[in-house]
Amino acid sequence: MGPVTALLLVGMRRLGFGLLPLWLCWATPANAVVDAAEYNAFWLWSGVKTQPVLGQAKTLYILQGQISRSRRHPGRGVELIAQGLPVSRLPQEQVWVVYRAHTLAWTEPVYRQLLDQVQRWQATGSAVVGIQIDFDSSTHDLERYGHFLRDLRQRLPAQYRLSITGLMDWSSNADPQAIGQLKGVVDEVVVQTYQGRRSISNYTAYLPRLDRMGLPYKVGLIQGGDWQEPQALRDSPWFRGYVVFLQNP
Asked: Per its UniProt record, what InterPro entries does this chain match (predicted)?
């Protein structure tokens, strides 16, 4: 019991009130709103306006394109559509170049276009540390995703790290062997606690199991969403911090 609570109880006794029920004194606090100003790593997606918090950013994950089957030109198969910031010099300590993938059936021109784009960012003097693949692989398809990532890792120049986004249920429902094949291939998994533009309501049910992956991970939050940090994260040897997905008001 804190000093403020004790003073309130003493005052109520003097006014003739009985003791408050204990459940009122130790009520569970409501989830806090994710305030981007409290963090220093952000996803910057296409169409999101510049915000003051970017001035404090140490790490940026910048969307640079989406890879999907061509709807406008079906004969071309899979294509990379450039998106996001134009190639320019960024002052942050770490810059990750992000690609949103809707298919894993990449063609050789897609790989070349991606690597050329990453090298152009590097040539500006930006501190490009690697690329991130944002692909919503279901748990039952993780083995195929692992094969894709191993091939991509071999194509990347050695100086670049490989990051992926991940779903929370990987830690609960995925085949341990499928998760295991990501070790030594990806450098981090950023686990998303949101869907669309809102926090997933039962995220607390999944977080204690994230260590089961045996992979370095960060936790992805949505700006303005709900969040209450469990102590288990701070105690985890695999936890590497947070990334906040910025969105327009």
From this structure: DUF3142, GH
- The SS3 assignment for 153 reads helix
pTM: 0.85
**231 vs 84, residue with greater confidence:** 84
Confidence (pLDDT) at 94: 98
pLDDT of residue 92: 97
State whether residue 76 is helix, strand or coil.
helix
Q: What proportions of the chain, in percent to the nearest 5, are helix, strand and coil? A: 35, 25, 40
Question: What Cα–Cα distance (Å) separates residue 104 from each residue in 107, 190, 197, 247?
Answer: 9, 19, 25, 27
- Could you tell me the domains of the chain? 1-30 (no CATH), 32-245 (3.20.20.80)
Backbone region of residue 225 per phi and psi (left: phi > 0; alpha: psi in -120 to 50; beta: other values): beta
Question: What three-state secondary structure class fits 179?
Answer: helix
Is residue 14's pLDDT more than 50? no
pLDDT digits 0-9 by tens, 77-96: 899 999 999 999 999 999 99
Residues with Cβ within 8 Å of 1's Cβ and at least 6 positions away in sequence, in order, are 25
Q: Return d(Cα 98, Cα 241) in angstroms, integer.
A: 18
